[in-house]
């Protein structure tokens, strides 16, 4: 009897991490919550720590010598191994953390460029009443410049030091919105992976001409 060909694993693979080095970071707790719900939704989750991707400041001369830091190599490897990514990022002075921007700068030097055409979801948690959303708007800029398909709806949790536990968000309505946002992102990314026509729909959603190459940095 002829052997059956191996069944392709069509499950979505998602890298999830918080852009914080602090052990008790509320964004790390939010990332863990997202990872659990993504797994329950059927995704294969790769939960990482920012410490794995941290490294020295980007230096073009070091880059030219090929001395790529281990953190950059690891971020490139993990992005390449997954179909999509979720980042829970704190807000520092109205923007993204410097260590996250530095990691993105290093990762952008790889070819093929690992953020290009990968779907991404951004979220934040903050003790402030703004929830860290200003930092997410800043974070969208380099990711979209590199061709990432950043999900339009972002999630920000205000007063996170009291609103968030390891198990859930205290406010049931916010918990529901968190889950709906995450599930909508996962469904879109999974459809884009398994049904190529979804790529055309996403490009059209962004207002780009689908029958011409997008003007992206590669």
From TrEMBL:
<dbReference type="InterPro" id="IPR005025">
    <property type="entry name" value="FMN_Rdtase-like_dom"/>
</dbReference>
<dbReference type="GO" id="GO:0016491">
    <property type="term" value="F:oxidoreductase activity"/>
</dbReference>
<dbReference type="GO" id="GO:0005829">
    <property type="term" value="C:cytosol"/>
</dbReference>
<protein>
    <submittedName>
        <fullName>NAD(P)H-dependent oxidoreductase</fullName>
    </submittedName>
</protein>
<dbReference type="GO" id="GO:0010181">
    <property type="term" value="F:FMN binding"/>
</dbReference>
<dbReference type="Pfam" id="PF03358">
    <property type="entry name" value="FMN_red"/>
</dbReference>
<dbReference type="InterPro" id="IPR050712">
    <property type="entry name" value="NAD(P)H-dep_reductase"/>
</dbReference>
<feature type="domain" description="NADPH-dependent FMN reductase-like">
    <location>
        <begin position="13"/>
        <end position="161"/>
    </location>
</feature>
<dbReference type="InterPro" id="IPR029039">
    <property type="entry name" value="Flavoprotein-like_sf"/>
</dbReference>
């Amino acid at each position: 009897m002829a052997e059956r060909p191996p069944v392709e694993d069509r499950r979505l693979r998602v890298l999830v991490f918080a852009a914080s080095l602090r052990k008790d970071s509320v964004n790390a707790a939010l990332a863990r919550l997202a990872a659990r719900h993504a797994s329950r939704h059927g995704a294969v989750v790769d939960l990482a720590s920012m410490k794995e991707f941290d490294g020295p400041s980007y230096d073009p001369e070091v880059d030219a010598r090929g001395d790529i830091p281990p953190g950059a190599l690891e971020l490139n490897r993990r992005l390449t191994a997954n179909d999509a990514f979720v980042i829970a990022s704190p807000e520092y002075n109205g923007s993204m953390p410097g260590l996250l921007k530095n990691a993105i700068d290093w990762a952008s030097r790889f070819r093929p460029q690992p953020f290009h055409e990968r779907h991404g979801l951004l979220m934040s948690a903050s003790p402030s009443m703004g929830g860290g959303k200003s930092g997410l708007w800043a974070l969208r800029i380099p990711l979209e410049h590199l061709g990432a398909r950043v999900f339009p709806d972002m999630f920000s949790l205000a007063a996170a030091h009291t609103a968030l536990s390891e198990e859930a968000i205290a406010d049931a309505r916010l918990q529901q919105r968190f889950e709906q946002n995450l599930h909508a992102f996962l469904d879109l990314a999974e459809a884009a992976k398994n049904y190529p026509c979804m790529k055309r729909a996403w490009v059209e959603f962004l207002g780009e001409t689908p029958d011409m190459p997008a003007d992206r940095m590669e």
